[in-house]
Design a protein that fits this description.
Elements: H1 2-14, H2 18-36
Length: 37
């Protein structure tokens, strides 16, 4: 079951759902703010 769940999650994330894309953009923005200070 662990392999199936891992494969399903990998397939879901590799399709770049909006929530993953939004989280990545938020992390990049936070990183830019911290690094510029």
């Amino acid at each position: 079951m662990g392999d199936t769940a891992t494969e399903n999650i990998f397939n879901w994330i590799s399709n770049e759902p909006k929530i993953v894309n939004a989280a990545a953009n938020l992390c990049r923005l936070m990183d830019e703010i911290v690094s510029s200070e």
